[in-house]
TrEMBL record:
A Pfam family this chain is assigned to: RecJ_OB
A molecular function (GO) term: nucleic acid binding
Keywords: Exonuclease, Hydrolase, Nuclease
Residues covered by the RecJ OB domain: 460-583
Protein name: Single-stranded-DNA-specific exonuclease RecJ
Domain DHHA1 residue range list: 354-446
Family note: Belongs to the RecJ family.
Residue ranges of every copy of the DDH domain listed in the record: 77-236
GO biological process: DNA recombination; DNA repair
Length: 594
């Protein structure tokens, strides 16, 4: 079930258009993205690296730099410990390269997803201590490791935390108190008393800022740190950070450099995915390149991905990139099977009526629980936890909806977990199997969600007739990129299309080519990517089997389709034609009087 809404934000669109030399449609699209001031719009359209915030605004950043500088100057051994996802691998890469550039005696460890779990733990601290490591610097983890860092302090080690996850807290009488690890420095913009203006940066951007300050301390120009922008951009997109404010600038700049990257491992990964001749977009980062990096941490060890990024020998880079590509293919097949099992679990248990879905897949590989949770969330538009059985007990991942702050809700039932952490929209957990039923019961009892929250909201930017489209307008739309979380690709809509022809392309049944004519007689090609059998079933439910069969045969029918869409240029054998990509559809019946 869907509800369609057309945005109705007000502004002087003609005035904005004149000021920036753009169309009123583009001005409306910017306003729909909650841009209100001239400065916000300027930064959105033309923001550059000069518009990024000063790294020293990060609480403890300068203190951390001083600690690390002293350790480097004293020749102390420093170890980086990161997470095993794209953001963790990216953060580790930037820190390792940056610290080495400053002359540090530095190495790195990435926890094994299965053996170690998320983040720093006592085993990794013991290992570092035995290896003679003096200082541990975390990235993309550490903010929830107060006990572990206290243990390490007891061994006489020094800790610097760089992270971006929500800060753990205890709440008493309505007052929240943050639980900050007792490290030499804790650098995380989410801390309440951190003055950094933009809180929604990923772990890799936190360490990018840290390295800028470290380069200052060693007399190295900050400009040199820009060689890490491609990696920071990939981490930002893959960790689903909102593409607003400085994230938008960082990703835009990183993408601009991507096709000419000097990072040979990244170049090899681009080539392995046959993207060498394509303009790299945020889509490629989030759905093609990033998953290859992630696959190593999911199925083998994330060290493989980091080794690729650090590799400088071209033939070795090619071999490692191909291995990650194969791992990602294996991960895709495991995910497909896991998604089928999740749907079967909900059907057999009858739990799909729950407000919060807690799905127990004991044999699922723990590394893909989050991906499956995301797929099920998309299907039901409900918060989802997918929990699996491991050697150490149960582990799981959650994916949420806008109206459900997943981390805060987990805090309310923290007794159910042995370990947990995350964001409003995603989380990870460990727990004992005996508490699984209690977790499901308490999460659902606490949930303040209503049926309205489960209805998918489709926010349409503009009801725009397809006859208005042109290649010049599509070129102008490029100014809105990169698209992603917080800066969605514009969505247009038009009612009353006649479908004059339709055919399924390929063998997967997930690509439908259509030929449309609007009520004024304007014709345009359309493409729909999705379950085509469901598309025709929806048509049949609305208009009947006979009319649906007429559509399939290219005959005139009473079927009318309203749709939301995004326009693009289709290039085929040297020919360029305008087409629309259909995102949402709904049918009605009306006799064709043409």
């Amino acid at each position: 079930m869907e509800q369609w809404f057309i945005s109705a934000k007000k502004a002087d669109f003609n005035g904005i258009a004149r000021h920036f030399g753009i169309s009123p449609v583009l001005a409306r699209l910017m306003r729909n993205r909650n841009l209100t001031t001239e400065e916000e719009m300027r930064k959105y359209l033309y923001g550059s690296l000069e518009d990024l915030y000063e790294p020293s605004l990060l609480k403890d950043a300068e203190k951390g730099v001083q600690v690390i500088k002293e350790k480097i100057m004293a020749g102390k051994k420093i170890r980086i410990i990161s997470d095993y996802d794209v953001d963790g691998v990216s953060s580790n890469y930037i820190l390792y390269r940056g610290l080495a550039r400053c002359g540090a005696q530095v190495d790195y460890r990435i926890p094994d997803r299965v053996a170690d779990g998320y983040g720093i733990n006592e085993h990794l601290i013991d290992q570092a201590y035995e290896d003679g490591v003096d200082t541990v610097i975390t990235c993309d983890n550490g903010i929830a490791a107060a006990e572990q860092i206290s243990y390490g302090n007891g061994l006489g080690m020094t800790f610097v935390v760089t992270d971006h996850h929500d800060v753990p807290f205890v709440e008493k009488d309505g007052v929240r108190t943050e639980q900050i690890p007792e490290a030499a420095a804790v650098i995380n913009p989410k801390q309440e008393d951190c003055a950094y203006p933009f809180k929604n940066i990923c772990g890799a951007v936190v360490v990018y800022k840290f390295i800028e300050l470290l380069y200052d301390a060693f007399g190295i120009g900050r400009r040199e740190a820009q060689e890490f922008l491609e990696i920071a951009a990939m981490a930002t997109v893959c960790d689903v950070m909102i593409l607003q404010d400085e994230n938008r600038i960082l990703v835009k700049e990183g993408l601009r450099r991507m096709n000419e990257t000097k990072i040979r491992g990244l170049r090899a990964l681009i080539d392995a995915n046959h993207l060498e001749d394509k303009k790299i977009t945020a889509y490629h980062l989030g759905f093609i390149l990033g998953p290859c990096i992630n696959a190593s941490g999911r199925l083998k060890t994330a060290k493989k991905a980091l080794d690729l990024l650090l590799c400088t020998e071209e033939s070795a880079c090619r071999a490692m990139a191909e291995e990650l590509l194969e791992l990602n293919s294996e991960r895709k097949e495991m995910t497909r099977k896991g998604e089928e099992e999740a749907h079967r679990y909900l059907e057999e248990t009858g739990q799909m009526q729950d407000k919060v879905l807690v799905i127990f897949l004991p044999d699922c590989h723990e590394s893909i629980a989050g991906i499956i949770a995301g797929r099920i969330r998309e299907c039901y538009n409900k918060p989802v936890f997918v929990i699996t059985r491991t050697r150490e007990g149960l582990k799981g991942s959650g994916r949420s909806i806008e109206t459900y702050h997943m981390y805060n809700e987990m805090v309310k039932v923290k007794e159910c977990f042995t370990k947990f952490g995350g964001h409003p929209m995603a989380a990870g957990l460990s727990m004992e199997e005996s508490r699984l039923s209690e977790l499901r019961q308490r999460l659902n009892a606490n949930a303040q969600l209503t049926e309205e929250d489960f209805v998918k909201k489709v926010h349409i930017d503009i009801a725009l007739p397809v006859s208005w489209l042109s290649e010049e307008f599509l070129t102008e739309l490029d100014m809105l990129e990169p698209f992603g979380n917080g800066n969605q690709k514009p969505l247009f809509a038009q009612k009353g299309f006649v479908i004059t022809g339709a055919r399924i392309l390929g063998s997967t049944g997930r690509c439908l080519k259509m030929f449309l004519r609007d009520e004024k007689g304007y014709s345009i090609d359309a493409i729909y990517f999705g379950d085509t059998s469901l598309f025709f079933q929806d048509m049949e439910n609305c208009c009947g089997k006979e009319e649906t069969e007429r559509i399939k045969k290219g005959l005139s029918s009473s079927v009318r389709m309203d749709c939301t869409y995004y326009p693009e240029v289709n290039e085929w054998r040297g020919q360029r034609t305008m087409q629309i990509v259909i995102k949402n559809y709904r049918f009605s019946c009306k006799k064709d009087i043409a």
